[in-house]
Amino acid sequence: MFFDTWMGLLRVIVVGPLAYVALILFLRISGKRTLTKLNAFDLVVTVALGSTLSSIVLTKSVALLEGILALATLIGLQYLITWSSVRSARIRSLVKAEPTLLAHKGSLIESAMRQQRMTRADVLSALRTQGWDDLSQAAAVVLETDGSISVLKELSDRDDSLTGVPRPGVSQPSISS
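RE: above sequence
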């Protein structure tokens, strides 16, 4: 009821730390981007890494080296996709969502909120969390690609802080790819 064999327990004690160390080494080699706030793509990779690590540790039919190769493959693919997305607008658009402007100059943008399934209460809650007490004080409220909400107190004359954020009815400078 508590375990099958002593050998199974020994395998977890030996293979678990080795697989964990391999994962940490791969994450350090792949760079900080692998550990950033999660967008949808990063979340999938993180879940897959966790699932792979648990399979290595708990599944007797998965050899340690096979599991380490699977971890390296996932991290390598994540590195390749993120490297490519930095260099190609087409790949970037496939992998990463755009931020969404939810409020501009104190006014909510209802169509954007509907599209992102956000309510007025959600936006006001985010404002309160960041120490704001009134929507009219916010120059912009942005739903970021990782799901967090940014509140900007003021915008510069050039609106650099909103570069890359689509704004209904406002043309914006293009970002070179």
